[in-house]
TrEMBL record:
Pfam families: CA109-like. This is Uncharacterized protein. It comes from the Eukaryota.
Length: 227
């Protein structure tokens, strides 16, 4: 069992790499979104002839400025769509990791439902390992669908209020609760975390002690749930 769990831990490390790439794309998307909303807000001002003052005497200035802003906005929209394709690539990768993990466990020696839930010490059981990867994939899939909807809904006609609401949704990433993801990793790597802590002369402050206690309680609850 320990050998199989270690193989599954490698899947989690690969998933972590994908999530780091996701965070990089998140930063890029937020930057692009901010630029897009700035232009959208500017278009409303540029559309009003009264806002040009003495510049109104310059023939075609309003059309020229609006045209340039629309051109820039379309370039940003294109970059956002390309970024969404990269998000989708990560979702597909996480799905493959979860699927490969399932095949790794099911394709090896036959495991009964009871064996899948056997937990030894701080090692997570096989069922939890598979469920955790599946949950991480589903979180990111749901968030991708939300992001795609937001990006598709953002147009030059959006009001300032709508744009702000869309932006907050992107920032919040409601479908990927960080605490839940971290809790999964804490249980998957509980034995490693505990061992590393024991190698230290003492815990580095109260926070480390509290984390170890939380992990221990989570592992105990997982074991009790499987009885």
């Amino acid at each position: 069992m320990e050998t199989m769990v270690r193989k599954l831990q490698q899947k989690y490390k690969k998933a972590r790499e994908d999530m780091l790439k996701w965070d990089e794309l998140q930063s890029r998307l937020l930057s692009l979104f901010k630029s897009a909303t700035s232009i959208i807000n500017r278009l409303e001002v540029l559309a009003e002839a009264k806002n040009y003052g003495v510049l109104r005497s310059i023939s075609g200035i309003r059309e020229a400025l609006l045209g340039k802003q629309m051109e820039t906005l379309e370039m940003i929209f294109r970059s956002m769509r390309e970024t969404m394709k990269e998000f989708h690539g990560i979702v597909l990768s996480l799905e493959k990791i979860a699927r490969d993990a399932w095949q790794l466990v099911k394709g090896g020696s036959a495991q009964t439902s009871k064996q899948m839930k056997v937990q030894i010490g701080l090692w997570p059981n096989l069922a939890y390992c598979l469920d955790g990867l599946r949950s991480i994939y589903e979180m990111h899939q749901s968030e991708y669908i939300l992001k795609l909807s937001v990006v598709s809904s953002l147009t030059w006609k959006c009001s300032t209020t709508d744009a702000a609401a869309f932006g907050q949704l992107l920032v919040d990433q409601p479908n990927i609760p960080k605490d839940e993801v971290q809790a999964i990793y804490d249980i998957i790597f509980a034995e490693e975390i505990w061992t590393n802590a024991c190698l230290c002369s003492n815990c580095e402050g109260k926070t480390d002690c509290e984390r170890l206690e939380t992990i221990s309680q989570a592992c105990t609850k997982l074991s009790e749930d499987n009885e």
